[in-house]
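Dear H.,

Thanks for agreeing to be a second pair of eyes. The structure we're designing against is below in token form, covering all 278 positions.
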């Protein structure tokens, strides 16, 4: 009933997506869960969402799963982007469903990597949009604006950089809240403060985007990456062909390979200097 009401409102406003936020569907004690039925319930519910949206000709054309490792429940049934994508593959209409990872917040709450989550989902054609924000690893859900907080500058910029390299085109939205110290008590400045906060959120994202574009265009970084990735193109061609006999006959000079310096540390330091404006 709750979905029907919300979807009707969303459709009235022209919403294109419906999002399944998993944070209510979880557990604190493993023996209280009917594991033989739990994931069946979730799949049945998501199949209903697809059917209801299409049968009623709603504006909603796609659904997304927003995975989360914990909070407010102790554990979640779909804690990672991999869990979400695997479950989507089992739905009646997997084309309807994708993911909207909240980067950096949800993955980094448990020490996982949002860069890998976003890149993996994009490579699967399932990254429909991003929830953008910032998170200190292994803490509660900070929900800070992009680039604001103790950590996360390099991480978020690298996500935009990687998605630019992949050629991803999708939606970005914000899931943040004001810092407690910035939300002054009383009513006098309430509206002004929130308008300023919206400007801060947009400015922080545009700053990250600008820096990601600059890294994307940096010729020295690209040259280092090309040397790292394309130094043995002949082997890549053989492996890509998939011919077992050609692969077996390929001559690899292991003595030469072990003498080659990859210089990954130097590449990362170069990127860090660009991030610092050096």
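And this is the sequence the design step returned. I haven't edited it by hand at all.
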């Amino acid at each position: 009933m709750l979905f029907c009401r919300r979807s009707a409102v969303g459709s009235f406003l022209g919403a294109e997506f419906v999002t399944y936020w998993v944070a209510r569907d979880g557990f604190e004690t493993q023996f209280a869960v009917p594991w033989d039925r739990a994931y069946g319930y979730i799949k049945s519910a998501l199949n209903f969402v697809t059917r209801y949206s299409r049968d009623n000709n709603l504006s909603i054309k796609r659904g997304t799963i927003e995975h989360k490792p914990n909070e407010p429940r102790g554990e979640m049934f779909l804690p990672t982007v991999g869990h979400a994508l695997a479950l989507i593959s089992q739905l009646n209409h997997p084309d309807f469903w994708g993911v909207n990872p909240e980067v950096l917040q949800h993955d980094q709450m448990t020490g996982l990597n949002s860069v890998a989550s976003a890149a993996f989902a994009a490579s699967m054609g399932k990254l429909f949009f991003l929830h953008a924000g910032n998170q200190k690893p292994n803490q509660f859900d900070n929900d800070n604006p992009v680039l604001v907080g103790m950590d996360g500058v390099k991480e978020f910029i690298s996500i935009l950089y990687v998605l630019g390299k992949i050629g991803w085109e999708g939606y970005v939205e914000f899931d943040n809240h004001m810092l407690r110290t910035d939300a002054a008590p009383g009513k006098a400045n309430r509206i002004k403060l929130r308008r300023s906060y919206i400007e801060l959120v947009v400015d922080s994202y545009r700053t990250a985007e600008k820096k990601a574009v600059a890294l994307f265009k940096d010729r020295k970084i690209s040259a280092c990456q090309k040397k790292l990735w394309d130094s043995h193109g002949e082997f890549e061609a053989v492996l890509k062909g998939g011919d077992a006999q050609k692969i077996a006959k390929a001559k690899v000079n292991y003595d030469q390979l072990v003498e080659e310096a990859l210089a990954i540390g130097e590449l990362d330091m170069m990127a860090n200097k660009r991030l610092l404006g050096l």
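Two observations from my side: The first helix runs from residue 2 to 12. The two ends are 56 Å apart (CA to CA).

Warmly,
E.
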